[in-house]
Amino acid sequence: MASNSDIEWTEATWNPVTGCTKISAGCKHCYAERLARRLKAMGAANYRNGFEVTTHEHALALPLRWKKPQTIFVNSMSDLFHKDVPTEFIMRVFEVMVAADWHQYQILTKRPERVRELSAKLPWKRHIWMGVSVEDARQINRIEALKATSASIKFLSLEPLIGPLADLPLTGIDWVIVGGESGPGARPIDPSWVRDIRDQCRTSNVPFFFKQWGGVQKKKAGRELDGRTWDDMPACA
C-alpha cells in the first residue's frame, strides 16, 4: 500500500484508498486503472476489487511508522475526494497527516468541489498540500474551486496535458506541474503548450516543474525542455 515512488515530483506513495471512476478526458488512459487490473490478476489482496473504490483501514497508520521525513503523494491509485469515499474516512486520513507532521503530503483530485464543501472541516496544516488535475481548458474551473478552499499550499497538475492552457489563473497558486501522457494510446503533447505554461509561471513567479514529454516510450522522450530540466518546488519544500 506504500512504496518509494518513481514519480519525479514526490518521494513515496500512500494509498489508504484505491480505485476510481472516469470523469473527464484526462482519465481516458488512466495508468492507475491499468495497474490495478494487473495487480488484481496477480492476486494482490488490496486490489481484490480491481479498480472499484475501496478504503483500506490497515493502511491508515503507515506514515506514522515512517520515521524519515519524506514527501508523500496521497492516493496515487485513487482520488481521496471521490464521492464513494466516506467523509469520516477522509477525516481520518487528515488526522494521520496532522499526527505524522514530519512529512509533507501531496493530495491530488479531479473533484475539487467536494474539497471546497469539506474545507471548513479539514485541518489544513502547511505540510498538507492540495492540488487539482487540469488536462485542458474544459477543466479550468477546477482551479477556481481549489482556490476557494482553505488549503495552505495549492498546486496544479497539468497532466496529461492534452490541450493548450492560456491565461491560467495563477494568483494564489503555489506550484505547477506539467506532463505529457504516457503508455498505450498516449495522446501527443505540443511543446508550445508547455512553453506557454512555463512562461506564465515565470511571469507570475510560480514554481514550474516539467515532469515528462510522455509517449509510448517516455524514458526515451525524456523530460528536458529547451535544453534543461525544470524541477522547481514550492518554497516550503
Task: Report a brief summary of the structure.
The chain has seven helices and ten strands.
Strand-residue proportion: 15-25%
Poorly predicted regions: none
The helix-and-strand class reads: alpha/beta
Tell how many strands the DSSP assignment holds. Answer: 10
- Return the domain count: 1
What's the total helix number?
7
Query: What is the spatial order of strands in the main beta sheet?
Result: 1-2-5-6-7-8-9-10
The coarse overall form would be globular
Radius of gyration: 17 Å
Largest sheet: 8 strands, mixed
Q: What's the helix-strand series?
A: EEEHEHEHEHEHEEHEH
N- to C-terminal distance: 24 Å
**Helix percentage:** 25-40%
Mean pLDDT, all residues: 96
What would your notes on this structure say?
The chain is of the alpha/beta class. The protein has one domain (6-221). The chain has seven helices and ten strands. The longest helix is centred in the last third of the chain and has 14 residues, at 191-204. The protein is globular and about 45 Å long.
Q: Which properties best describe this structure?
A:
7 helices; alpha/beta; 237 residues; 8-stranded mixed beta sheet; 18% strand; two-stranded antiparallel ribbon; 25% helix; globular
